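Have a think about this chain, tokens included, and walk me through the fold.
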Amino acid sequence: MNKKQEIYNKLLELVKEENVKVDEMLKDHLYTKLGGKADFFITPTSYEEIQSVVKLSNEDNIPFTLLGNGSNLIIKDGGIRGIVINLKHLDTIYSEGNTVVAQSGARIIDASRYALDKNLSGLEFACGIPGTVGGALYMNAGAYGGEIKDVLDYAYVVDKHGNLVKRLASELDLDYRTSNIPDNGDIVVEATFHLKPAQHEDIKEVMDDLTYKRESKQPLEYPSCGSVFKRPPGYFAGKLIQDSDLQGTNIGGAEVSKKHAGFIINKDNATTSDYISLIEHVQKTVKEKFGVDLEREVRIIGDDQD
């Protein structure tokens, strides 16, 4: 029995067969529609299954990667070795008083809409963020003046040893598009948001306005990884890229959006290599023209194509 078959058999002891896939194409799970294969693609249905898979990864020294819905992520064409976990089945959202509790596989958009239904204010800013709740905590997602750190009370995580642990928001070092979640090796499984009662019409008005701004300014008609770069201090990344005459620039099938310069779209069957080359070209050009270093907001992971 080869090593791959041995790992597969062990995974079947922990997770239902229909939730364990071998050589799964990751581009099917990403907004960019890019990325190679995962050796093992796991979609657990309980916290206990996640804990078991993490412990197996540790015991057998199997590489392990967590994948949300891939809205702010680029995976290289060679894919990812070892185990990739996706938490799409853990998507329950419910409320307790003035809090909304959401599992990490739920979309943060859906948590925002749920809060609206319960006449709770605070998550309006998230009504256009395409990522999952887990991903939103991972990078302290934000938009239009709001961010996760403003409303997060606490989260439950599976730590790198496979233990289920409660983390207060103050323990997560939430800052501009960052947290200590990746450094700690935590897997967010559930988040609790503290919100405020408000009039349904007032909440909806804000969300409708933000939705209009997003849909009118962002190139949602093409696959993309969302906003590519963090906002440099004292500048706006999109404005710097626009003023560098980079809109419409393409490498292979990847193109700097003509609608919003902060986005790079997959316009014509781009490869991950196209995407990365274009990101580097934008960084180099902006540095030469304005002396500003553009730092990536999007994460790039995986192996290069053989």
Residues 87 and 105 are 5 Å apart (CA to CA). The mean pLDDT is 94. The helical segments are 3-12, 47-59, 108-117, 133-138, 181-184, 200-217, 237-243, 272-290. The chain has three domains: 3-86, 93-202, 219-301.
